[in-house]
Amino acid sequence: MSELPYSIIxxxxxxxxxxxxxxxxxxxxxxxxxxxxxxTWIRERTGICQRHIAxxxxxxxxxxxxxxxxxxxxxxxxxxxxxxxxVATSTPDMIFPSTACFVQKKLGIAQGAAFDLxxxxxxxxxxxxxxxxxxxxxxxxxxxxxxAEVFSRILDWKDRGTCVLFGDGAGAMVLQSAKEPGILGHVxxxxxxxxxxxxxxxxxxxxxxxxxPFLTMDGQAVFKLAVEVLESSAREVLAQAQLSTxxxxxxxxxxxxxxxxQFTAKRLGISPDRVVVTVDQHGNTSAASVPLAxxxxxxxxxxxxxxxVLMQGVGGGFTWGAVLARLTR
Length: 329
Ligand code: ACO
Fold this sequence. Notes:
The protein is α+β, with helices and mostly antiparallel strands. The chain has ten helices and 15 strands. The strands form five sheets. Strands 1-7-6-4-5 form a five-stranded mixed β-sheet, with helices on both faces. A four-stranded mixed β-sheet has the order 8-15-14-13, with helices on both faces. The chain is globular and about 65 Å long.
């Protein structure tokens, strides 16, 4: 009987649309609509300095395909090698078909399954765990796992409490079957009772949008829950792999807010120089934030083969999870 394989991260890629929009530029644009904000407020409360916003002719699948193409090239693979596509997104191109099917078409992938995964800002960690299980069960050999969002389209640009927080972008990884483990463990959680603290409740029904189509959030409730579950899920996945926080080379948490990242690192006893931070450059890109941060830190040479990386998602649902990986390349 052949042994079931493990999975490794064989490649990564990312894509950010257009030029960055600074806090100053955003404040000027909002001022034209009578909305008051400032670089100082945004920077001090969130750590965000700028974000990218996709032009009207770019959809989630465009960003996802560009990031996916880069991840495939990084892994030395072509479309014929990919036998699973999972896109984590809360801003799909359409109600259906799935964004993953559009990505499959755009990249010329013609075999295997393709589907979307909806777990908001935990989406990528959910998708990576799912792809790992496919590979470990021998159901896929090369999975393209993408987090991609155009959150700018579900923001109420008159609500200064939320519109300054988010950005658009995409990040991707190729997970590949291997004899030695790359993915060391994962944990996923959800608590639906907190669905009301962060959501976009509007739906299309009977030819009309029914309910509020914009993101709403109880910021302080999200903050409190986020720091709690980021700590508990980190400890849980490390216990599963029998590793300590000292053995984590890099922490890559969901990039919601610099204060959430700092709190989490402090509670875990991980020094700030071992935390990958992109929220200042990208804002909160929801499902794209973890793979974008991973790719950036890998390409700038911080992440290296042999290192242990702890990736964490947390967001609407309420959902959260963690993936622990040892880098092999
Ligand atoms: N510019 C200027 N003033 C603002 C802005 C803004 N963009 N937004 C809100 N304010 C004002 C409010 O009107 C309020 O004014 P008031 O005191 O006169 O009434 C004041 O600032 C304080 O508002 P709060 O909402 O209480 O501000 P808070 O300190 O809670 O910070 C924040 C808000 C940054 C959202 C915080 O709650 C937070 O970090 N929450 C975590 C949630 C988060 O990061 N969500 C991202 C998505 S969720 C996820 O990804 C997990």
